[in-house]
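Structure, all three chains, one model.
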Amino acid sequence: MKRIAISIFILVCSVPGLLFAQVEGKKGGVPRLSRQTSACVGCHKIYTPGIVEDWLRSLHSKNTPSSALRKPEITRRISAKKVAAPFENVVVGCYECHSLNADRHKDNFDHMGFKINVVVSPNDCSTCHPVEAKEFSGSKKAHAMGNLTKNPIYHALVETIISKKTVKEGKVLQQEVSDFTRQETCFSCHGTEVKVAGMQTVETKMGRIEVPALSNWPNQGVGRINPDGSMGACSSCHPRHSFSIEIARKPYTCAQCHLDPDVPAWNVYKESKHGNIYLSNYLKWNFNAVPWKIGKDFQAPTCSTCHNSLITTPDGKVVAERTHDFGSRLWVRLFGLIYSHPQPKHGDTSVLRNKDGLPLPTAFTGEITAEGLIDKDEEVRRKKVMSGICNGCHGNAWINNHFIKLENTIKEVDHMTLASTLLLLEAWNQGLAEGLPHGKNSFDETIEQMWIRQWLFYGNSIKYASAMTGAPDYATFKNGWWNLTENLQHIKDWIDLKKKTIPPK
Amino acid sequence: MKRIAISIFILVCSVPGLLFAQVEGKKGGVPRLSRQTSACVGCHKIYTPGIVEDWLRSLHSKNTPSSALRKPEITRRISAKKVAAPFENVVVGCYECHSLNADRHKDNFDHMGFKINVVVSPNDCSTCHPVEAKEFSGSKKAHAMGNLTKNPIYHALVETIISKKTVKEGKVLQQEVSDFTRQETCFSCHGTEVKVAGMQTVETKMGRIEVPALSNWPNQGVGRINPDGSMGACSSCHPRHSFSIEIARKPYTCAQCHLDPDVPAWNVYKESKHGNIYLSNYLKWNFNAVPWKIGKDFQAPTCSTCHNSLITTPDGKVVAERTHDFGSRLWVRLFGLIYSHPQPKHGDTSVLRNKDGLPLPTAFTGEITAEGLIDKDEEVRRKKVMSGICNGCHGNAWINNHFIKLENTIKEVDHMTLASTLLLLEAWNQGLAEGLPHGKNSFDETIEQMWIRQWLFYGNSIKYASAMTGAPDYATFKNGWWNLTENLQHIKDWIDLKKKTIPPK
Amino acid sequence: MKRIAISIFILVCSVPGLLFAQVEGKKGGVPRLSRQTSACVGCHKIYTPGIVEDWLRSLHSKNTPSSALRKPEITRRISAKKVAAPFENVVVGCYECHSLNADRHKDNFDHMGFKINVVVSPNDCSTCHPVEAKEFSGSKKAHAMGNLTKNPIYHALVETIISKKTVKEGKVLQQEVSDFTRQETCFSCHGTEVKVAGMQTVETKMGRIEVPALSNWPNQGVGRINPDGSMGACSSCHPRHSFSIEIARKPYTCAQCHLDPDVPAWNVYKESKHGNIYLSNYLKWNFNAVPWKIGKDFQAPTCSTCHNSLITTPDGKVVAERTHDFGSRLWVRLFGLIYSHPQPKHGDTSVLRNKDGLPLPTAFTGEITAEGLIDKDEEVRRKKVMSGICNGCHGNAWINNHFIKLENTIKEVDHMTLASTLLLLEAWNQGLAEGLPHGKNSFDETIEQMWIRQWLFYGNSIKYASAMTGAPDYATFKNGWWNLTENLQHIKDWIDLKKKTIPPK
């Protein structure tokens, strides 16, 4: 019965005249929707109207690949040289994205007579945006999931933090970690592996329907592993069905993950001079212009200005090329690791090995690994690209001083981290705590947690504050030098007390 | 002398021609102000011009009850079926609100020849908005003050936190708590009891005048007890004299109270995908439309979308009815208590009793009280309303997965709370600390404070992050699993150290 | 070779026809640029286009001093009575600001044939804005650097926090503090002393050029000591080349430095009712109007409304005069010191002496110094100015209650600080810690750090929350009474444990 009702419904939804009238009304023109997308929109206007409205406001609903290709190259948002039929002359609608590469998609299923994928992957987007997809695929973002799970040290850190615990006989025991908790903690940003476990029946407003049963879903982490095997989620930064460049260029997008206490990029930015100008004036700026013109379209940078957008002077001279390899303008890695070091050559960092054979870019005592990181020349080249963007407003003496200061800060903060690491090693050596040298968990005791705070929270904050010449509070009292100093004292106190109350073995 | 000066002044202010000219100028029409409101505005334009300007921008200054009632019902902001004379055909001005139900108002006084109330209460607003006032009156918000003061356990917690302290002979002694500090801490949000202690003379720009002496005032807490005996303050969310639906629908309003570390709703929202879209795009949305249309008026929900606004599809089909009982779309209570549990049936939670007879919805060890909470059917009904709103943009499989994840998170977090509660009970049992079982304060020792942090700060953060599918940092490092884990370790360390330094009695 | 290339370049840039065409295009009129500024703009449009665009949007690029002086006095942004030739009849361009008082500027140098200063100082700005420069020069802001460095107690606090440390033989040893770290921590807000150490060669897009080698630069702290000997940086609040009154009036500007945990002004504001209204509605307000009219231009105050802007009623009656001495409307000093006290008479606070001869406005036990602070009459006068602004919207009874509450809060919080100070003094007296009485560092041990938190973080937060009638969370759980109480317990615990593990000497 329900099945019949649904069939009738689809028929009604799909009556072209009705549908086109609805959509035309929005746009005042005759959009060239594909027959399939017309059907999608016809039903989804009723069942999930929000995403249809979202799409109607997007460039995708108003442009066809061929119309996009007729624009001058520097203003183009499409990087394919040609998009073949049947997509060439229809707007980029539901079916155009959700039907691609069906053979690779384990989440492909029959939905009201159409074979569609639940998840649209970077590989699907590469139909029109191949340059962006390729750049992204080599980045640390694309590898964000594996970089946590394939690295036994990070993996142990993650699982120690997010596992359920029970206290038994005076010991804190780690129990299982659920996929649900993984999904909404570390892997909410790093990305989950979305798997298909057959089909399931779900109740909907139009009756029961069969859809793929996806695990670790929903997820929009940057390193998501998709049911087609590709890595990444374009919707991390171009959310939902507006596919907006404006949203991606606004710092709130980056701020979903780049937040204090561990990655305080947004926190530092909004308290910096650049952030001050942005927050006061951004309503007058143009976040949709391509290319993005210094001074004309914006008067202070956002995250995407420095890290990835195509930036030009007001008269169109290229200052920095667009990139979707988000680390490619960076020479030094500031955050997430015990000490700073040159950027890795490739996004997969699980292959790095420090002098002790551990999968880290530096030793616990700071020595930088010889292989897998970019060399001096590449560092200089990248710093020059970044300086070129600063140069849009700042003179070279200013810029030079800024980067000299940053370099000094990195050294001083890493020195403070080393001071605390030496205390931790002393505690391990003297049997006051148990960690790596004893083959035990290095992240579960109080002194170990204090040590993690030192580099993961306080060191990172100060380095970020320095890198963005801003947020003096993040360099001082808010997870800054105050905390670095106080915490070092606490680590020392912990050792002193432990020595008094537990005689070393 | 002064009295004469004032009288002359009023006379001048009230000259109708002058006044109307002033007000008309703003609006380009002839507003039908009552004679009394004309007098109010005439003086207050000079003495407190800000609130007059605020009101001039409001719908109240531009509509009469009868004009409001001529609108189609679904677009109405007025819920009375009829408003009688003398209010029917004048705009809703100063006198129309500040003169109501004078006999009930202990704060009613003679002000320049008019009998007015200082405080406008929900009961006064119910003249035009009876449905909203009634819904609100049964909510936890309306009972927010009594829920703290009438419950001896919460009361002890509150007073322990905000009392002045002195250290004497090695003991931290609690001294008095002032009404002033109550007013600006817990009861700033929960609401104070505004009392009238006779009249007082105040110096003003027009000389000395007599006004009621109100205690615990100013206050705009949601559970305020007003001088007319009613509960609540509409100005909590519709602030001052603009009575704005736009302000109430923007999350900054909720964010006055629903903030980290204890109620991090706004913090989680702004770091979620919904918050990302809101912050990037809200300037293009319509926060004044009634009904509020998914996709048309907004492209991502704010607090009020999910919790209380009248929501429809773009073509006007009702998705969720308006409600001013703010918990009525919720089935599970996430925050503010040791463990999660089904929502209470009624806003007055001080009547609940756990299995140990304490005024709590659960036992210290988590068992849920049998009475006073909604049943399974009601839980299902409410989840369906909320899911219906999600369904405006999201498919059912997505929504189902989301709520399954939330349920798991609640279980895991409550498990972590239980682990810490068992340690606290051990400490109490072994005489390492003194609490409830000894008839002593359960909230004033270090281990007790750590235990409170576990559920009130860290547990709440993770549950909120899960409920809004957002803010992975609040689930992880920012009062999340990191802190839940670290703090559990600290509780255990405290017990270990105590055992070493104070042999158990 | 390069020198020749540069010369040719300048020639090309300076061709008047070309230049004017470029600039005219922007503005649709014939701007009267000086010959020198034309040359500056000609090159910098190519080399640092962002600042040229910024300037083109400023009032400086559109007005000459003489046109500014033709406006009615109350609407003027210029406070000079007359500006002499050659500046009188040209717009305020690059050269008009960067060439002033060359003889005083150690950073003056020959740049492409023009003698210019790198740094524009308040003394330079005083050419057109003498009243503002004079007011500012006496403020605590202007003296912000010396107030930290000339006061041995604050200096020790600063250096203890931001020095590199090493742990040797169980002791945390302070090492050097670098100017770089000073520059990006405390002195990022307080200001650095910018010194000129000869000339340096820098690589630029147009080849190598000689510029002054500035140390402690870039910096925009409010108490910056400039190469001309003057104090302050107007760009702290009127950033870069837009010199915007709008930016200065928006709270993001103050929020660069007035942030939690030590100075949580912005944090408290944005969570207050005023902040709620601001954040919901500020897009409809006029931040450029001079004077700034209550109710007309804004419906809730921002920082600058209460602290320094020229405020009038909607019909232009002055409510508060403009001031650039930012403490001059304040009677009590809430933050940054152990206890509250009347505001200092002068911005240089290093001259104050408490009863023990220490350079502090109060004793460690709270007694207020007799000299150097404003007297009761002045306190009353200032409170009246501030109340007058509140009175724009609030009645006098409301305002009175507010300030009585604030006074009580200050007393209670200072009482809590005293309780912790007495514990610290006990620890010092009993030899559990070493501080001032032993001629030792008072800021480097754990109990000392806890004591600093008590007043610098928690006390300040509660006082701010009270002063702005807002942010109940900052008064309660977020660095509020919760933390004040918990931390007092920790201080007591520390002493108890120390007594048990280190027998007092």
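DSSP finds 22 helices and eleven strands in chain C.
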